[in-house]
Amino acid sequence: MSDRPMTAGHDGTRNDEVCKTPEARLMLAVLEEALATFRRGVNSMIPTDRQSYREVDSWLRSLESDSPFAFESICWTLGMDPDYVRSGFYEMKCEASRNRTVAGVRKLRRERVYDRRVWKGRIG
Predict the structure, then answer these.
(1) 94 — phi, psi (to 5°)?
(2) How many CB atoms lie within 10 A of CB 20?
(3) Where are the domains positioned within the chain?
(4) Which member of 22, 39, 44, 61 has the lowest number of beta carbons within 10 Å of its beta carbon?
(5) Residues 6 or more apart from 57 whose CB is under 8 A from it?
(6) pTM for this prediction
(7) Is 27 exposed, middle or buried (0-12, 13-18, 19+ CB in 10 A)?
(8) Distances in Å between the alpha carbon of 49 and those of 39, 56, 84?
(9) Which of 4, 5, 14, 2 is nearest to 78 (CA)?
(10) What is the chain's pLDDT, residue by residue, as a tens digit (124 residues)?
(11) Residue 92 to residue 98: CA distance in whole angstroms
């Protein structure tokens, strides 16, 4: 028996039973990466992290289930309720916004391209 906790899906099946196929393990990895990206980008000042966060956020909001890697398809395949998983993501988003302080947000700083005292008005 493994040291991992045994959790049950919404239909009573254990996640270890559901994730025996390679496809299901891949779907679980996609969901785990979405969680990591969401956490990393929720309050990030790095533009690529924020963009990735927005992509995950729109993926979570999508109600599409035609694609095998759509959020809803992944949740149903893994035996999870998509609305319940969404609520966990959005609770994390609300918690992050509550913890964000004005002092914690970096102010943008304008920098001069050149120093007027040094520039002589000619190029080259």
Answers:
(1) -65, -40
(2) 8
(3) 15-99
(4) 22
(5) 38, 93
(6) 0.64
(7) buried
(8) 10, 11, 25
(9) 14
(10) 333 333 444 444 445 566 788 899 999 999 999 999 999 998 888 999 999 999 999 999 999 888 889 999 999 999 999 999 999 999 988 888 887 754 455 555 665 555 555 556 666 5
(11) 10
| Distance in Å from the first CA to the final CA of the chain | 73
The token pair that represents 42 in the structure block: 């929720």
User: How far is 72 from 94, CA to CA, in rounded Å?
Assistant: 22
Report the alpha-carbon distance of residue 22 to residue 67 in Å, rounded: 17
In 3D space, the residue among 41, 47, 34 whose CA is nearest the CA of residue 93 turns out to be 41
- Amino acid, single-letter form, for residue 122: R
